[in-house]
């Protein structure tokens, strides 16, 4: 039944149907709003996570660059790996 057909019903039925229609529409609006907010929250969490990962990568690269004798250590590791492969 369409809302325009409510006028043909007795008042008690009309108000009951109108209340049911309003309740359904309200539930649809609230569900849509909640879904939108959840999507926004998920997007925000992804951006925070990506920013944290980039920050950690920069810190790790900075620590790696600060290691004294780094080239010598890498050379020894490569030679050891090449001399005894699994």
Précis, in short:
With 86 residues, this protein is mainly alpha-helical. 80% of the residues lie in helices and 0% in strands.
Polypeptide structure, described:
The longest helix is centred in the middle third of the chain and has 55 residues, at 11-65. The N and C termini lie far apart (76 Å). The mean pLDDT is 87. The protein has 86 residues and is mostly helical. It has 2 helices and no strands. It has one domain.
Integer tally of domains:
1
Give the overall form. rod-shaped
**Helix content bin:** over 70%
The strand count comes to 0
How large, in whole angstroms, is the Cα Rg? 32 Å
Largest sheet: none
Task: Give the topology, please.
Layout: H1 11-65, H2 70-83
Provide the descriptors you would attach to this structure in a database record.
86 residues; mainly alpha; 80% helix; rod-shaped
């Amino acid at each position: 039944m369409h809302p325009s057909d409510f006028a043909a019903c007795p008042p008690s039925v009309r108000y009951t149907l109108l209340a049911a229609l309003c309740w359904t529409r309200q539930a649809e609006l609230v569900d849509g709003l909640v879904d939108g907010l959840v999507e926004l929250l998920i997007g925000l969490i992804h951006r925070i996570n990506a920013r944290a990962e980039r920050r950690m990568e920069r810190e790790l690269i900075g620590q790696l660059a600060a290691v004294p004798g780094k080239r010598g250590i890498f050379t020894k590791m490569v030679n050891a790996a090449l001399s005894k492969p699994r």
